[in-house]
Structure formats: C-alpha cells, structure tokens
Amino acid sequence: MLAIFVTINIQEEYLEQFIQASFGDAEGSVSAEPNCFRFDINQDEEVATRFYLYEVYEDEDAFQHHLTTPHFLQWKNQVEPWFVGELEIVRMKTNFPSDAGWRAQKATLTDY
Question: N or C: which end of the chain has fewer CB within 10 A?
Fold first, then answer.
C-alpha cells in the first residue's frame, strides 16, 4: 500500500472553511474511491492553522486516480488560495496493518 502524509499550513481567516472543505474531500475519497483505504484529517494542537492529512491507497495508480476525482478537484480549487507556503508531502510504504488488513477495514470507513 502507498501512504502519504501531507502537511498544510493555511491562512487563519479560512480555518473553519478549510476544515469543512476538507471533510468533503475525505468523505468522497473513502466512499467513492474503492482503492482509498484511509483519509485522516488532523489539526496541530499548538499551531491551529497547520493540518496533517494521512491517506492510504492501494498503489500509485489509485493515488493518481484520486487526483482526478471531482471531490479532490473541488477541494483543491477551493482551498489552494488559502495555503501558506508549499505543501510538504511524505510518501511511505505501509507495513502495518497488512494489505489484507487495510482492505478488511474498508467497509467501516464510512461509519462516522
């Protein structure tokens, strides 16, 4: 599995709007993308305008597909003007859970 960890800093005046817009991208990713197995949105405790996204995809093709989806493109067009600086993206290979474990969890991703 391919995991990505994204660090995003945003302008303070767009804090709540960013959170709401990001919910749409996360929900769309886990519900409409069969090969997206995780999409977490985390907010820094000390720097309220800093967010961390943790996403897990089947492979590079699934991640590239994500970048073309309507929910991602809508999110990007809406929030990109609010960014402060460049995004930091770390790409990782998952070790735990196993690939089968990620797939088994998929059915519960929309139980929120």
Answer: C
Query: How many domains would you assign to the chain?
Result: 1
- The answer to whether residue 28 sits within a structural domain is yes
Domain with 62 in it? 2-91
pTM above 0.90, yes or no: yes
Backbone angles phi, psi at 17, to 5 degrees: -65, -40
pLDDT in tens, 13-27: 999 999 999 999 999
Helix (H, G, I), strand (E, B) or coil at 89: strand
Q: Bridge partners of 42?
A: 52
Residue 16: strand, helix, or coil? helix
Q: Count other C-beta atoms under 10 Å from residue 25's C-beta.
A: 23
Alpha-carbon span 47 to 50, nearest angstrom: 6
| Residues 49 and 82 sit within 8 Å (Cβ to Cβ) | no
